[in-house]
Amino acid sequence: MSKIKILPEILSNKIAAGEVVERPSSVVKELLENSLDAKSTRVIIEVDNGGLSLMRVSDNGIGMSRDDALLSLERYATSKIYKDRDLFSINTLGFRGEALPSIASVSKFSLITKDEISEAGTEIFVDGGTIKKVSEIGAPMGTMITVRNLFFNTPARRKFLKTVKTEMVHIAEAVANIALGWPDVQFKLYHNGKIVKNWYSSPDPFNRVLDVVGNDMKNDLLRIKFEDNFISGKGWISSHRVSRKTSRGIYIYINGRVVRDRGIQHALFEGYAGRLMKGQFPVAVFFIRVPYDQVDVNVHPSKHEVRLAQQNQVHKAVIGAVSEALHIADRSKWSAENFSGQKPFCVSEPVARYNESIKLKDIPAFSAVQKNLWEEKRFSNLRVVGQFHDTYILCESDEELVLIDQHAAHERVLFEHLKKLSMNSKIEVQKFLVPETIDIGYREADTLEKLIPDLKKLGLEIEPFGGTTFVVKSVPAILADREIKPIILEIAEKMLESGLSQGLEKTIDQCLMLIACHGAIKANQRLSDKQTSALLAQLDECENSSHCPHGRPTWISWTLESVEKSFKRIV
Ligand code: ADP
Ligand code: MG
Fold it and tell me: Which ligand ends up closest to the CA of 101?
């Protein structure tokens, strides 16, 4: 007897589900793609318990007849491609014909649908891949698919699911990703009966972009556009005044499909050349259109990756468009017209606040006793020669030439200062007369909410204001005149990246580092003599004055001997 057998259909569907349905958000993504392929203009997504107990997607698309509805549950049944040739010119989001049977094989699934021609709707119940009931039902045109108890019959998969919150974060992100690419479609997302977000349809894609990346970015987005033979693209990129610590603010769409494309991301960075520091990422939304036969979407079961036939041309176009937009913006110097009433992030802040936060000391009398200078931490004994590039304090001792990075040094001072105060809950707080409202991404909002009690101890009093909006009531005094949203966003992003499980002390330290970094004097800031001396004296009082909290050196030096050798005075 032959050992090889053709797998039963339910089993092969479950195997396909292993690839297509990784977690609840993959179900939502597949169902949304089907709704969009069905030309829906309104899609409602209802989720209970992070999708673990229920996910329902209802649309007003073209719907299905009874026969098509039954066929849609068969593996490799699709209305989107018919011939070999079609596979190489796909103009829909789906085409593999495996999402519905895969999802239905690992859940309690039901579908209600009606097309334009049918008089009544069709309702089908499927239990772990087996059709249990098919009946007629009154229904409007469109489709409603309900997925309950995902992975109820594949316990190994269910075990890998994370908390309700985490799964919901993934779902919200999946919906936002799709919503961003389809601005003329309305999407409404509910969790446990409460509305999470309503993305209204809008003829202007910029409104949807702001909906997803945050309204506060309005004045910091530069429009880009390119057209090159067969490809065209448009989108928005952040000005050099804004940066993120992760690539999460980068959205790339090819023919309406959100894709991960390292090549295009790389081209984006090249376009920014020299304007971003290492570890910084821009915010960017690209809508790229290429002829359907120039892009292979059949690369990965979840269709997140694509292959472009003319990759180089697309990359060149992206680099060109990004650098041109930034160049034009540089030239217009962020004119008042573009950025009325906005404070730039990275520009030096008034020195007055620095004086308040660190008590100025008298300029110490110079002593030439320079032995073991660094062991004794005698920064205040150095003679200050001047400031180089408004960024480095240039000093000398009898034996050495010393450069101190003013930002790194002040960051270290503030970090140690705040740490001491936080241990005794004595951080000085500045209350806002009018609390500031900020709106951030769903993922970041989830992390920020968990951090609220710890941040309060650091003087950062934040309250949830519904959905992804928060109200900031007070900040540590050293941040009093800083723009608060980027700081809070950075805290949330950083914590999201490192995970909150790292322990309270580390989390607090990381928050303090960010507060110190934002509160510290910046590069490109002219310091008075008094401020310079105060900084050096404060540096002397630090436990670890040689590095900033992130590990960058605060100072570098050259001995007289090494300088003389460089000038060939001595050999
Ligand atoms: P694919 O999208 O790759 O074709 P699916 O398994 O996701 O495969 O769906 C199978 C078929 O079911 C689709 O080709 C489409 O004809 C039909 N279908 C699925 N969802 C909907 C929907 N929301 N509205 C109308 N038709 C749908
Ligand atoms: Mg599909």
Answer: 1
Q: Is residue 437 part of a domain?
A: yes
Residues in the chain: 571
Closest to 519 (Cα-Cα) out of 472, 484, 489 = 484
Same domain, 162 and 275: no
User: What local confidence, expressed as pLDDT, does residue 331 receive?
Assistant: 67
Domain that holds residue 531: 353-558
Please tell me the distance between residue 103's alpha carbon and the centre of ligand 1 in angstroms: 12
Question: Which tokens in the block code for residue 223?
Answer: 């429009």
Confidence band of 510 (pLDDT split at 50, 70, 90): confident
Query: Both 52 and 121 in a single domain?
Result: yes
For ligand 1, atom 12, the nearest C-alpha belongs to 72
Angle subtended at Cα 81 by Cα 232 and Cα 28, rounded to the nearest 5 degrees = 75
C-alpha angle with apex 53: 47 to 57, nearest 5 degrees? 35
Mean pLDDT of 385-396: 95
Looking at the fold, whether 183 and 304 belong to one and the same domain comes out as no
pLDDT tens for 45-85 read 999 999 999 999 999 999 999 999 999 998 778 888 777 77
The pTM of the full predicted model, rounded to 2 decimals, is 0.69
Q: Check which CATH number belongs to the domain holding 454 and give it.
A: 3.30.1370.100
Give the residue whose CA is nearest to atom 19 of ligand 1.
34
